[in-house]
Amino acid sequence: MIVTARIPRVRREVARWRRRRDRVAFVPTMGAIHEGHLSLVRRARAAARRVVASIFVNPLQFGPRDDYRRYPRPIARDRRLLRGAGVDLLWEPAVADFYLEGHSTRVTVRGLSEVLEGASRPGHFEGVTTVVAKLLGVVQPDVLWLGQKDAQQARILEQMVADLDLPVRVRRGATVREPDGLAVSSRNAYLGGEERRQAVALSRSLTTAARLLRSGERSSAQLKSAVRRVWRDYPGVLEGDVAIVDAHSLEPVRRVRRRVLVVVAARVGSARLIDNFEWEPR
After folding, report:
1. What's the whole-model pTM score?
2. Which residue of the set 37, 103, 124, 248 is catalytic?
């Protein structure tokens, strides 16, 4: 595995693969690699000759309540895991090189970025779209792999790619879960023992919502009430939000008549956790 911090080296290696007509897949990360990231790498590995991954803790997407300096950075472990999963090139740009002095351009996807998590974390998705646009501009992959756990982020990036006519296909990998159902996330590292036990409330409430949908429930109000009833048994779930939205527009729906995204978010201890599933009537 090639490891580099330099943009010219990334471009040179990808150009060399291009001359060989190798298909290139890209998996962007902020490090603290977990099974969710590795599942994306494996999907990329199965569908492309070359896999590029990046580790970049992006300061633009951290808000006042987020601790940029505290974000985990186990770089030696991350490299070992990515190498084992089959990454060909790992790009680890430095902030000073990535955002040169005077950098002032921002990429914004209006509407989609201002709801759900965007309403709770103003400016967060602008940071995401800006960094991914820059990463894609350097790597220029054939395929970009994103995780379903961050469904709103994936939808926003799909819209950005379409709006800017970027020559990359966006693919999503399924959410990876712990044996008890908790969605795998780098932020789970912030959870203490009791907080970790409380955090399972998110996935259990989604399981309840999915069961109701399968049994014929179509009222968003009833689905949200059922989610919140599950949370009552978990006093560690704070500032909990639940929404049922159109999976494409992210607009709220009163009744489920088409493909929807059921989204939950809550603060457990110091961590804000998110989870979701998509569902479509048949």
Report:
1. 0.96
2. 37
